[in-house]
Description:
5 strands; 3-stranded mixed sheet; alpha+beta
Amino acid sequence: IVHQVFPLVNSIGLNEQELLFLTQSASGPHASLASWNGIPDVGVVSDILFWVLKEHGKTADRASDLTRIHFHTLAYHILATVDGFWGNQVAAVAAGARAAGAQACATETIDTSKVFLKAPLEFVTSQIEAPSKISLNPDEPVVHWH
């Protein structure tokens, strides 16, 4: 995927198993993690996504068009992008998460009285870099960080 897919695509979607396999096979960050223990840690996921874009994403010196990764798990979605290539990312990740939820629940309208938020209400944005701690507001469930 690193050598045959990333150079050809501008956007890719990965779930938690695919992301973990990618970092393990390419000796990326957290490659020693054998499996997720429940809901994937947001900081770990963010570290891996940042590494993929830093090492394999589009730059002036690299023959790659990859500028966007949509990570999705049952609990949350993360959209990681290279600056300057994608507009309205907050709406895009919200729409993707809503569509996935509607598909998973087999309904076009999600009854909020029958669902609950599985995303962590507090998380750090990295386990490697200087992290920011973010508190999630369920009434505004899309957060943004650099």
